[in-house]
Amino acid sequence: MNQLSEQPEPTILTHLRISIVATLVLAVIVCGLYPVVVWGLSQLLFHDRANGSLITDKDGKVIGSRLLGQNFSDAKYFHPRPSAAGSGYDATASGGSNLGPTSSKLINGTTKPTTQPNPKGGDPVAGPDAVDFDGIKLRILHYCVENNIPFDAKPSLDKFRDAKGEVDDVKVVKAFVDDKEPLTITPKLPIPADAVTASGSGLDPHISLANADLQAKRIADVRKLDIALVRKLIEQNTDHASLGLLGEPGVNVVMLNLALDK
Question: What is the pLDDT of residues 207-219, one digit of tens each?
Fold first, then answer.
């Protein structure tokens, strides 16, 4: 019987050499060739999306992205959903409020004391309270007022107006948690959830079709446009469910407001 020739035992240097070569080869493939191939294919096949779906003005200046919401507060624009990202739509502080559905802060809002400079010098003195977190109830109130949606308020909002006749948000937030006679706001139309709650990222550029439809009349009135035209623009800037199945249709507020300005 032939006997197999004995092979020498590999030394630790042999194992070390194999490990180093394997690491270098994989590094070149995974950290070099693979990213270059993926980058090249993405630039070739979907250049716009691969570079962030950026929006540019007529001069080529980048003014945003179709993937990131922006805050619009002027009455002539559609308003996005609330944002808990920093001071609102801050891409460097993406996140939600992390408040649960039973949170009094989320529902009723909170106020905080402020300070102001002492006219006599020295330490600052106490200033008027300010809204610290607006809360869903206050958002509902503002949404109804902004979009001329009828609502019932008990007790009357006249009790919570300032010297200019405008609703005082601080008084309203405090009234929501009044033990004796809490303020209640009851809209006569359903208010879309996305109109008064923030997204998980705080950067979602979309609002629901129902939200956009409730804002359409305000836009038409302020801009003196036919409401049919406004609704046509809503449809043109609606992103439908992926493959017709995944997700709900959403109106891209950034793109819609840009279309309004054209």
Answer: 999 999 999 999 9
